[in-house]
Each structure stands twice: as structure tokens, then as C-alpha cells.
Design a protein that fits this description.
Blueprint (H helix, E strand, L loop, with lengths): L25 E6 L7 E8 L3 E6 L10 E8 L4 E18 L5 E11 L4 H14 L3
Antiparallel strand pairs: 1-2, 1-4, 2-3, 3-6, 4-5, 5-6
């Protein structure tokens, strides 16, 4: 006869499941000016120094430009609203079919005045997803 294992109150029940979600991409808004509508892009990777975002629409980002960005970090790590500077732009073409192509625009931005609270939130997110 097999003995059943007793479950203590601090153990998770056997039927508990942790739902895993992909950390990237997630939405980011770039504010070019106070009067213009925000540009919505996909965050592809983030560090405490900056990030890469991707757009499918044509962009007008110029190296050296300053912008304001805002985004919510997944995994309940907080909300970031901070100034950034455009560091690089990468334009590529992705084949959709034998005769169709799509332009992909990747923009690298660095934080210029990241608060301690925002830096801690970003580092918490990076740890939570196991990013190297």
C-alpha cells in the first residue's frame, strides 16, 4: 500500500499552474511633442541603459533627437515615463512572399534621465524574465 504525502499549508497544491507569457514584444508609446499623437511601437529588448523598439510604419526618428517614452512593464513590474535619446536606427526588409516585402524599422534609444525608481523597475523586470 502506497503512503500519501501530507501537504503542509505552505506548499502549493499539485494542481496549481503558473501561466507563462512571453515578455517581448510589449507596447511602448513615444511622444515626439506635446501636440502630436504618440507613436506606438513594440519593445523588443530593454536594459537599464536603453532599449530597442520596432515599427512597421515609416518613421522619422533622427539620431540625436530627444523624446519622451512611456510604457508598462509586463509581469507587474511598473510603469515607466522618461526622456530618451535616439542612438541608432536600423531599417530592414522582410520577405512576406515571393513578391511581397515589408519594411521593418528598429530604433535604439538610450535613457537620458532614468529615475532610481524606474531603473529598479526595469531591473526587476529583467530578473523576473531571466534576461542575461
Amino acid at each position: 500500500m502506497a503512503a500519501k504525502k501530507n501537504q503542509t499549508s505552505d506548499q502549493a497544491p499539485d494542481n496549481s499552474h503558473v501561466k507563462k507569457v512571453a515578455p517581448y514584444p510589449f507596447k511602448i508609446e513615444v511622444l515626439a511633442s506635446e501636440t502630436a499623437s504618440p507613436i506606438v511601437a513594440n519593445m523588443m529588448k530593454i536594459t537599464d541603459q536603453g532599449f530597442l523598439m520596432r515599427l512597421m510604419d515609416a518613421h522619422h526618428f533622427v539620431v540625436g533627437q530627444m523624446h519622451q517614452v512611456r510604457f508598462a512593464l509586463p509581469v507587474d513590474c511598473g510603469f515607466v515615463n522618461t526622456p530618451v535619446r535616439v542612438v541608432k536606427t536600423y531599417d530592414a526588409v522582410q520577405p512576406l512572399s515571393a513578391k511581397e516585402f515589408a519594411k521593418i524599422f528598429t530604433i535604439e534609444m538610450h535613457f537620458t534621465a532614468l529615475s532610481k525608481e524606474n531603473r529598479d523597475q526595469i531591473l526587476k523586470f529583467i530578473r523576473a524574465i531571466g534576461q542575461k
